[in-house]
Specification:
single chain, alpha+beta, four-stranded antiparallel sheet, globular
Amino acid sequence: MGRRSRRRAQGAKAPVATTAYNDEEGNVLTLRDELSAGTLRALRELDGKPAASAEDRWQRRQELLFERLAVRWTIAGLPLEGQKELLGRYRMASAEERQRVRAAIDEHVADRFEEFGSP
């Protein structure tokens, strides 16, 4: 039995708890409700790097949070679910789209992860 077969035999993972955020254009960003200990550690380390500029840390923090929290992003009725397509679409997003995503992530983080509530 190969590695893939063993993974499949172990059964499907339990569904991840998520929260959906709708914008005024009807797009839906779905974010996971929990972060791993490794992600929380990476955020702490990112916030503690004195050599990086504040802008660099802020940009990296936003992308890291999007990458780790985003489960699905439905834009104009088209659902994006793969990690690569989500991150690629985020990087191509307009300034307005990024602002809406940041607002949703900021609200989500403030509600669930007090330690990281404000950049």
